[in-house]
Amino acid sequence: MKRRSLMTTVAAVAVMMGSLGAASAQDAIKLGAAAPKTGPLAGGADVTHWPAVRLWVHQTNEAGGLQLADGPALIELIEYDDQTNPQQAIQAAQRLATQDRVDFMVAPYSTGLNLAAAPIFSQLGYPQITGTNVTNQQPELSAQFPGMFFVLGRTGVMAEDTAQVLVDLRESGDIGNRVALVNVADAFGIEMSGISRAVLEENGFEIVYQTSYPLGTQDIAPIIDGAKAANPDAFIAWSYPGDTFALTDQAIVQDFAPSVFFTAVATAFPSYYGRFGQQAEGVMGMGGVNPDDPAFQAFAEAHQELAGQGPDFWASASTYATLEILGQAIEATGSRDRAVVMEYLQDNSNSYETVLGPVQFNDMNDNERYWTVGQWQDGVFRGVAARGRDGVSDVVLKDGWD
Amino acid sequence: MSAREIRNLILSAMAFGVVALLPFYDTGYILSIATTMAMFTVLATSWALFSGPTHYISLATAAFFGLGTFVTGYGFQTMPYWSLPLIAGVLGAGLAGLVGMVTLRLSGVYFVIFTLGLAELVRQLVTWVQNRTGQRGMYVLTSITERDIYWQLLGMAALVFLVGWLIGRSRLGFALRIIGNDETVAKHSGINTALAKVLLFMVSGAAAAIVGAMLAPRYIYIEPSTAFAPILSFQVVIMALLGGTGRLWGPVAGVIPFTLLWEFISRHAPNQTLLLLGLAFLLIVYVLPGGVVGLQARLKHRFGQGGH
Amino acid sequence: MFFILITGLLLGGTYALIAMGLNLQYGVARIMNLANGEMLVAGGFAAFWVYTAGQVSPIAALIVVAPVAFVVNWLIYRIMLRPLVKRAKSRGALEVDSILATFGLSFALVGIMSWMFGGGYFNYSYLAQRVDIFGSSYGQNRVVAFAIASLIAAGLWLWLSYTRAGLNMRAVAVSPDSARLVGIDVTAVSALAFGLGGAVTATGGALISMFFTLDASVGVLFTMKALIIVIMGGVGDIRGTIVAALILGIAETFVARIIDPGLTLAAAYVLFLGVLLFRPQGLFGKQPT
Fold first, then answer.
1. Which ipTM score applies to this complex?
2. Do B285 and C104 touch (CB under 8 A)?
3. Model confidence over C136-147: pLDDT tens digits?
4. Residue-range definition of the domain harbouring residue A144
5. Among A12, B63, C194, C282, which is least packed, fewest CB within 10 Å?
6. How far apart are CA C45 and CA C39, in angstroms?
7. Is A182 helix (H, G, I), strand (E, B) or coil?
8. Contact across the interface for C104 and B279, Cβ inside 8 Å
9. Cβ contacts of residue A208 below 8 Å, gap of 6+?
10. Domain spanning C2-278 has what CATH number?
């Protein structure tokens, strides 16, 4: 009895020594992260960005850190609040790089903040693997910033695929020709709306109602009333979180139930289903996942456990994937030298195993395989359109709200 | 020009020269803070040129600044780069003149809220036009570095100081001092108060638009929600008032400690940045009434160094 | 047409909830409170928390939210703002100081809220069913909020018009110096007005949270709206605020439905700027002497 407890003690001490030895053999890898904790985009970053970043760091450290050539190294995460302000985003990136001397940095949140910080990443040689930067300018941006990588996808493709879903539904005789198209009036909404309008018209759809509304609008009743009066078969809204909720809410209140109801950002948030429950069934939005993929299921479970909330079914996984890619590049080179890691990332022949599935960058640093359209089906936001991903589900028509 | 004025002028020129050498010392962290300081120095000083003597608090800085960034956003591919700040300045002055003519008869808080509304109106109209024309987000991709922007801002700051100094010596400056003290007296003594106010408002509007045009390459991605963010207008007011608007150098004395404080708090309390900033504001309001200028005046008074 | 009118009225009711509190705070206590929107969001947070934690209706929650907000705001005035009022040499100096101080307060409140509750969005579903009026459907929660806004507005107006305390308050609103001369305790009345204003704002926040998605940083949008409504209606007159709120609500809805929703805010600002140009003291404001 006594001997056994002594033995276990010795064993425990040995294990502790071992892990201590492993951890102290190397200084921790410092990882810097600046993203909104306050300001207009804090709400989105709180769902999508921060939990995914913390989860990856937590899991990597649980597993003993990253394996470098001379032993494992734990990750030390340094967080700053950029206050959703480009000025602060620039300064925070500078501070991380030159004051905290971090080894690597997490790309900021949103297109605007990523671009503001891009010159700093670029000048100081930090890879900028973006998970929430959705743009169509990959050729220009990768030429100017060769260390900038794009995981989330292209705006043009997203808008095209959304239009394509309608084309397919019409081909199969499920919907008619009439589309109502609205957008939030900022760069994102304007761009998406412009592309989808062009694609829809090319395919012979009739835009029976089109309008925009100012950023921050949540009094949306007149828009739903106008859309309803135009009697469309499909309703497409390039919206932001607050208005996504408001549009759905008003559509329910006014019983506006077209066969296709699409809202953009935040449709994939778990809180969307939390708010609307059964009524969310059949609503479409940007992104989507393959919920049957065990890798995603494990990610969602761990996310729920650590953050107390599930991941959003779009950019949470891509944010997490940006760090998986970084981690794999560091381990593959066995080095914390940014130049070496950057070279590895820029080598197009390398590919990465991520929660999104395998990721490989093309010569414009662009990931060409991603989910584009999702739909709430039986309480999960299933991908119903994708580029190069398996497990695409069939689209179902929305059958009223009640 | 008195000997004292010449001495001050030479000292100021030397100070500018020293500050301009900064990029040779550091092109990273310190330069990026210095660029922020330079930007707010121009904005706050030009703001105080108008608001100091007239006691009008303008919250329209964001409108002019946003206008300037959009000038660069639209024009940087088709027009020579040097012309953009000039165009922005002319447009800014034009907008300020227009607004000034119709609004300066408002007083006190009405003017404050009017300018706030104006900034929002301009932003809404720009967004709406963008939406109608299908204009996408603008990417200002240039080879301009932070160092270039810093020097441009510094040059602009020198210009604003020069203008401020000249106005202080001119009949216009005299007129404005009287308006600030008593507008009725000013009117009776034959000063065209309306014209004087409009002119100064145009100066501050032009300066803010030029700063916007210069900063666009730093932000790279131009969209109305960040270009016209109302927080900028408030920051400028806070910094200028913290420094004090009674003297030309007052706003700078607010900008420098304020930027450092902001940076310090952002760095050391990443999760409570806004909370601590807010508490710092409150402390400043209670401890430093009249801003740094007021503090200096009180210290002078106490130590009897008035030197009249 | 009925749709535009009713939707506009409902929106106007929402705006009145946002702005009535600020009118009391600025009109009577002379504090241009830039933290108004944060107080509103705090009211919304409280209702959200009570609803999700205990399934208590946000309307029932008002019984707690309003008094707590009153006490908090009363204390803010007595501790934080009173020294500024005391040291101010002129109304202009007080305006500058109160803008600076309440701007700092708004930062601090955003900081506290995002620290305590995180930066995420919060909303919930309460009375989100439809109710039919003249053949169109509206959200029950908006109709209920409108009804409560009307009750608050009527109550405030009656109280200000027909009670001794209300009369004192109006006297302070018109001229603190004269009020002091006739023996009114200006400080106590101002603190009361500030606390009451805060209570009305937080109540508005609790009601608005039934149909708005809020987050810790969103307050500034409400502050801007409230400033515009209060100035447009005329400072220190509750009727002006209500009329301005309803006009804005109906005008925005009209523009959104008939012209272009992209111009709703532009139209609101044009209307506001127009009113100021032709009636600088606001719709119901007294001509400054």
1. 0.90
2. yes
3. 889 999 999 999
4. 29-154+293-371
5. A12
6. 10
7. strand
8. yes
9. A178, A179, A180, A230, A231, A232
10. 1.10.3470
